[in-house]
Amino acid sequence: MLTQETMRRFNLLLLVASSVIWSVPANAATRPHYGGTVRVAMHETPQSLDPLSLAQVGVPNISRLLFDTLVVLDDRGFAQPALATTWQAEPGNQRWRLTLRSGVSFNDGANLEPTAVAASLRAANPDWKVLPVSDMIIVQTGEPHPNLPAELALPRNGIVHGNPQVSGTGPFAVSQYVAGKHLSLVANDQYWGGRPFVDSMEIDFGQTGQDQMTSLDLGRIDLAEVAPENIRRARAEGHTVQSSSPAELMALAFAMPPRNDEEIHLRNALALSIDMPAINNVVLQGGGEATGALLPNWLSGYGFLFARVQNTEFARTERTLGKQSGPLVLAYDSQDLVARTVAERVMLNARDAGITVQLTTNGHGDMALTRVPLPSLNTQTALTGVALALQLPMPSFGNGSANDLYSAEKTLLQSHRVIPLGYLRSGVALQPGIRNFNMSPDGAWQMSNVWLGSDKP
Asked: Which of 323, 316, 306, 280 is nearest to 412 (CA)?
């Protein structure tokens, strides 16, 4: 007897089979091939190319082109082998053994040796003890660290060799670099994961969003960054745009913990006054999602439980229980035009609830409008990274269950040190000739398998 599930699977198989049959001629005509240069423009201006510096200025996509980590995470947040092929924790999760991949070399020709890997990890993590042993390394931490593989996958832990000229094992090598202005890359012919299809990449730094889109329209570049508030417009104008899941937290982070119950009521009132769905629809043009959580719902699965709805009446009630001796000073980045508009909307929403908010760009305030890119696709590592960026207490995860993760996030929110506003998407606009470009849910670029079609300008 055929069940509904059986019929669903049968119809899915027919659909897949038919799509394969009809796509054969097209695929045969568009088979990947080697060669060509991909031209990219970026807003950031990195002054150094080592993994730690790149992580600090928010350009992990450059780091992934040059440096490999011992472990990578798939789109579900599960650890997969990279420069390490196996790993094993000893009882207590404070001591880990990782076996290194053989036959790998740095772009300067040096072999990947345990001593170089250990030195690289020690430099990035001074609190760890990292020892080379035979064909492996041993990592020892001061506290139990059951989630170490996910932390090793962070771009800041890219394996680097050499000083001052750094070299990695990544799919591309540096050909020329002008700090903060331009980077030329060439394909690594000996890359252990397989040579990239394109021969080279040319990357211009310090380009505004408007300048990037103009260069894209004129055929000067092949890939442009698209800010969340411009994704909808770029698509409406006919550009090929790929976007991530909502993966950059926008939040109000308080400089100090609340000193008494009155300050807690005042912060609760402020949170209830903010109309984030309207900010998302009007200011961000649908480029994000409103949230009351620190992690996006698509990652944690429970973010909706922290949903917060604007309620000016309740906000006024909370305001009467709180005490405001002076204005709440909200700091924001003067170079971020969207941050300015969001800050102004927060100020107006707060005024409707009887709360006085004053804006500043000098970096000193009672709270700051902060943007935090999702640190990891692993939930525990992500929550730890968000807490670190917002200067919150480090979360405790118990035995690592979903309930423990929820409890850890709830505890951070109940500290009244942060008001989550929304999660924003990132986007890129591509020339039609760019093939096989993909973005991970967190916005990471996957460039190794990109190739150029015949319609590239």
From this structure: 306
Distance CA 11, CA 240 (A): 31
The mean per-residue pLDDT over the stretch 292-305 comes to: 96
Alpha helices in 90-144 (DSSP H): 114-124
The values of phi and psi at residue 67, to 5°, are: -125, 145
Cβ atoms of 221 and 40 within 8 Å: the answer is: yes
Strand-strand pairing, 367-373 and 328-331: parallel
Please say if the pLDDT value at position 11 is more than 70. no
| Residue 89: strand pairing partners | 96
Q: 334: alpha, beta or left, given left = phi > 0 and alpha = psi -120 to 50?
A: alpha
Dihedral class, residue 174 (left if φ above 0, else alpha if ψ from -120 to 50, else beta):
beta
**pLDDT score of 324:** 85
CA 138 from chain center: how many Å? Answer: 28
- For 20, half-sphere exposure in the C-beta direction (CA atoms, 13 angstrom radius) is 6
Q: Domains plus CATH for the chain? A: 37-41+171-244+426-452 (3.40.190.10), 68-157 (3.90.76.10), 248-424 (3.10.105.10)
Helix (H) or strand (E) holding 57: none
- Enter the pTM of the model: 0.89
Query: Tokens at residue 319, please?
Result: 């305001």
Could you give the angle at which helices 337-352 and 261-273 cross, rounded to 10 degrees? 110
